[in-house]
Amino acid sequence: MPPDERRAAILLAVRPVLLERGAAVTSRELAEAAGVAEGTLFRVFTDKVTLIREAVLAAIDPADSVPEVLTIDRTLPLREKLSTLMRQAHSHVGESMRWMGLLHEVGRLEPAGPSAEHREAAIRQWGRRQQAGTAAVTAAVAELLEPDAALLRLPVTDVIELFNTVLIGATMRTVDAARRGLDAGPPDHEQLIDLILHGVLAPTPTDRSA
What we know:
Keywords: DNA-binding, Transcription, Transcription regulation. The chain is mainly alpha-helical and 210 residues long. It has 11 helices and no strands.
């Protein structure tokens, strides 16, 4: 297997054990998850911390969700499209937040010095990939909502920003509750869609008669 392919395969294979064990994962567990010997693992990666960091950065790519967005039928009613999109996006954002938490853990383990320069370079490269991935997701969602543009009070791009704000806020609430040992339960996706489409004001008598 070419070096780049082997590297990518290892980064993908260790994801489940990283989500389960976090920064406490051992080199042996990583090697077993990747199906290679520890010596092989560290001929590809400098050390355990580098491997974990690169695996996390590889796992958080917004563009991974584009194929799923494209499976949503553009002819569905607007509410149904938004509800499906919300369920998909909540799953992706929740997992991304778990990865980001692990990235912070790893950051505390990395020593200062020359390796810090490589770490910063990797973060910058990841940032560029994030920007491109986010743009790809936005384009896919815009294509999904475009048939309903005439029904919307705001431009499609503004609706997407509002959707993202509600999505991230709801996800952060769930993640924060779990961090404090509380069970907030999953967000009510239909309630979130109601908020996006209708706000929080009760219908006026004029609205009811329309």
